[in-house]
Amino acid sequence: MDKVVLENEGVRLRPVDLTDIEAITVAANDVRIWGHMSVTLLDRTAVENYVQKAIQERKQGISYLFVVIDKQTNTLVGCTSFLDISLPHQRLEIGATWYNPSVWRTAINTNCKFLLLQHCFESMQLNRVQIKTGHENLRSQQAIERIGAQKEGILRNHMIKKDGTVRHTVMYSIVMDDWQQVKARFLDQLL
C-alpha cells in the first residue's frame, strides 16, 4: 500500500514514523486509554516498540498504523489502523484505535472513521470492512453502531486479555452495499 494520507477539516491521518515517538508518548500517557486495549503505552520504551513494530508490519503489508492529528490544535491525539489486510479478498479491519481522553466525545473519531471508510470503499474498492471490540467495551460498541456498522455476532472466548481474562469479541461490518447509506449518515453528522 502506497503512502496514504487522509484529511478533512477536522483531522489528518498519516502513516506513523519514528519522529512520532515523542508525541505518541505524550498523547498516550493516560491510564484511562488502555483498559480495553491489547497494548499499554505508558512509557517511552513501549511506544518505541509499538512504532517500530508498526513500521515493520506496514512494510510487510500486514497492517497500516496512522497517527491522528487534530487539525484545530495541530496535535497528535491518537492512532488508528488498518489490520487483517486481505487485498485478494477485498477486505480489511479498522481497529486498534485509541485517543487521548481530551478528544473523547468530540468529532475526532467520527472524522477518522469517515476518512478511513471512504478510502476503503472509494479508493481501494474493498467489499468489506470489519470492526471489532470487546464484549465489555460498551462505549466502543455504541460508537461503532452509531456510524452504521452492522452487528454480526459475538465470537465467544476469542481472545486472552492482558490481565489473563477471556474476552468475547463483538463483530461488526460495513460492506460495499452499505456504503452510500453509511456515507450519508456520516455527512449528516459531520456537517
From TrEMBL:
<protein>
    <submittedName>
        <fullName>GNAT family N-acetyltransferase</fullName>
    </submittedName>
</protein>
<dbReference type="Pfam" id="PF13302">
    <property type="entry name" value="Acetyltransf_3"/>
</dbReference>
<dbReference type="InterPro" id="IPR016181">
    <property type="entry name" value="Acyl_CoA_acyltransferase"/>
</dbReference>
<dbReference type="InterPro" id="IPR000182">
    <property type="entry name" value="GNAT_dom"/>
</dbReference>
<feature type="domain" description="N-acetyltransferase">
    <location>
        <begin position="11"/>
        <end position="177"/>
    </location>
</feature>
